[in-house]
Design brief:
The complex is a heterodimer of chains A (304) and B (268).
Chain A lengths: L6 E3 L2 E3 L3 E3 L21 E3 L16 E4 L2 E4 L7 H14 L4 E6 L4 H14 L4 E5 L10 H5 L1 H14 L4 E4 L7 H11 L3 E4 L3 E4 L14 E5 L4 H14 L4 E4 L5 H10 L3 E4 L2 H4 L3 H15 L15
Parallel strand pairs in A: 3-4, 3-14, 4-7, 7-8, 8-9, 9-10, 10-13, 13-14
Antiparallel strand pairs in A: 1-2, 5-6, 6-12, 11-12
Chain B lengths: L6 E10 L6 E7 L12 E5 L10 E4 L2 E2 L4 E7 L3 H7 L6 E8 L11 E7 L3 H13 L7 E7 L8 H7 L3 E5 L6 E2 L2 H9 L7 E6 L2 H14 L2 E5 L15 E3 L7 E3 L6 E3 L6
The chains are: A alpha/beta (304), B alpha/beta (268).
Chain lengths: 304, 268
């Protein structure tokens, strides 16, 4: 019996649950000499905004215990250059392409999604309502349920493609935000984005990041992410894509057991660019060894 | 396409280079499938098996032999390099590489000014050897090398073996020229023509900033190899950025567009 790693989210078929998280994989072309891109379940692009953004001044990454802080500030090529220069490469790949969209106003989210819809050549949109590193927007849509409903509704109006809402952990109730995403019409939720964090240099008394605060990611945040996926799975009926410190196949199994159907490998791509490949192989082996037929046999099966 | 995915390399040697035990040369055995290595490129090294330190560490390549052995030279400055210092023969080290771009090869008629500051030595040592292999006249390769004291001037024997004009410089005057490397280079540049000279530099940022100013002021061209903490090393994390000189609100990635940049491109 061979294990089947295929999953389906909102009608989109993934050859396996392992995708790579926004901001950790560029526009995929950077990784073509490192791994077989077609072996991935899917690729989430860097966040795309209406205009090109250089991002914050350096330093904008900082090493921490079992993780890192970043305050990149949504540096990206902008929607026009994305469509002209990056999308043609992504289109050719035999994997699910998810474009991550960010904005500082409702109109910006809508405009970017509208231009993407006209261009075509991708499978899903992930709405970044959870970036902790920009002054305006981003997170305000991700921390207030009413704003979340509005932004998801508005983008659903201009695209036929499934919408994933990427949730922030920097909220009082992740369940309320997942419910709001669902109420707005989101087809899936992905969680978690980074946790707000900060570091201080004891020599210079300056913050580790020019932006002062940043987003914490990596293995350090995995238990927080597992708990949040667990909570959302038990309370809201919507497909979940688990994110947060996933670096090994054991991490992947943990996320499936608390209810994540899909997965995103993020910061691990920086340290071990082939982490996603090892995870796919490991999950496959695990299913086979336990005589499980598919990811569904693991989904939310935690014994509590 | 030849992939540059992570590979476990066997340690062939990990040799101390100075009396104090700050500088080491690590020789690794590369897999046969590694793509061709050029001076200026770097390798991204996982210094430990676990999560501390979390990031890989980037090191310029100091040499790469036909036998697929690769050298890096490092100074023990923090946790990562301290762990590297403890490696012994037959240990395994996880590296990604070669990564990044390379120094461009000058015409044989050009005089090459190599400016190495401190642990900026490795890529220029490799480049000097590479140019000699390509039959660049030895007397046209001027090797400037600056350090704080004579103890910071390492690999003297290797440089002497190349038989290129050697200009060591120390801040305290304990070896060679007494003063900053840029002072020694400035004296030399007065005797050289801008069109037939190319400057290549690698070293601490204040030195590279001074070298870039000196070159731009006097109309010389060349290339600088920059350093920055690199979370990913492959162009995606956008952490190792530097502002452009012509538009400081725009950035270059040291790991991806570099680490070698034309003089005048990056604000240092």
């Amino acid at each position: 019996m061979s294990a089947n790693l295929q999953i389906e989210i909102a009608g989109v078929k993934f050859k396996n649950p392992v995708t790579v998280a926004s901001g950790t994989f560029g526009y995929a072309e950077e990784f073509q000499h490192l791994i077989d891109l077609d072996a991935l379940g899917g690729i989430v692009t860097k966040s795309i905004t209406i205009k090109e953004r250089p991002g914050h001044p350096p330093p904008r990454t900082h090493e921490t215990a079992a993780g890192m802080l970043n305050a990149i500030g949504l540096a990206n090529v902008g929607i026009e250059r994305f469509i002209d220069e990056k999308l043609p490469f992504l289109k050719k790949l035999d994997t699910v392409i998810i474009v991550n969209v960010a904005g500082s106003s409702l109109k910006e989210y809508v405009d970017v999604c509208h231009l993407l819809e006209k261009a075509g050549g991708f499978d899903m949109i992930e709405i970044n309502v959870s970036c902790p590193n920009v002054d305006r927007g981003g997170m305000e849509f991700g921390t207030d349920p009413e704003s979340m409903i509005k932004v998801i509704r508005a983008v659903k109006d201009v695209t036929t493609r499934p919408i994933i809402a990427k949730l922030s952990p920097n909220v009082t109730s992740i369940i309320a935000m997942a419910q709001a995403a669902k109420d707005g019409g989101a087809d899936a939720v992905s969680l978690i984005n980074t946790l707000v964090g900060m570091a201080v240099n004891t020599d210079t008394w300056q913050p580790g990041l020019t932006n002062v605060t940043g987003g914490l990611s990596g293995p350090a945040i995995k238990p927080v992410a597992v708990a949040m996926v667990h909570k959302v799975f038990r309370s809201v009926d919507i497909p979940i894509i688990g994110i947060g410190g996933i670096s090994t196949w054991q991490d992947a199994i943990e996320f499936h057991l608390v209810g994540a159907l899909g997965l995103q490998v993020g910061t691990a791509n920086f340290i071990q660019p082939d982490a996603s490949m090892n995870i796919i192989a490991g999950v496959k082996k695990y299913l086979r060894a336990r005589k499980l037929q598919s990811i569904n046999d693991l989904l939310g099966r935690i014994k509590v | 396409m030849i992939k540059t995915k992570p590979q476990m390399c066997r340690v062939l040697k990990n040799q101390r280079l100075d009396k104090q035990g700050y500088y080491y040369k690590l020789t690794l055995e590369l897999s046969q499938k590694t793509r061709k290595v050029f001076p200026g490129q770097f390798v991204h090294v996982k210094t430990n098996q676990g999560l501390d330190p979390f990031f890989r560490r980037a090191f310029s390549i100091a040499d790469c032999g036909p036998d697929n052995s690769l050298d890096i030279i490092y100074k023990i400055v923090g946790r990562g390099t301290k762990i590297l210092g403890q490696l012994t023969k037959n240990d395994a080290v996880d590296i990604i590489g070669p990564l990044g771009n390379r120094f461009t090869v000058p015409s044989k008629k050009q005089t090459v000014v190599l400016a190495a500051g401190g642990v900026g030595l490795p890529p220029l040592l490799y480049f000097a050897k590479f140019l000699l292999d390509k039959k660049h006249p030895a007397d046209k390769i001027l090797f400037f090398y600056g350090g704080r004291t004579k103890d910071d001037i390492i690999e003297k024997a290797a440089i002497k073996k190349y038989a290129v004009p050697f200009y060591p410089c120390t801040d305290d005057g304990s070896f060679g020229y007494h003063g900053l490397i840029t002072g020694a280079i400035e004296d030399k540049l007065r005797k050289l023509k801008t069109s037939s000279t190319k400057i290549y530099g690698c070293g601490p940022e204040p030195m590279l900033a001074a070298l870039q100013d000196l070159a731009l002021k006097n109309g010389f061209t060349g290339e600088l190899s920059l350093e920055a903490p690199m979370p990913c090393g492959v162009g995606v994390c956008l952490g190792c950025i530097k502002p452009r000189l012509d538009d400081p609100k725009k950035y270059v990635r040291v790991c991806y567009e570099g680490p070698v940049f034309p003089i005048g491109e990056v604000r240092i």
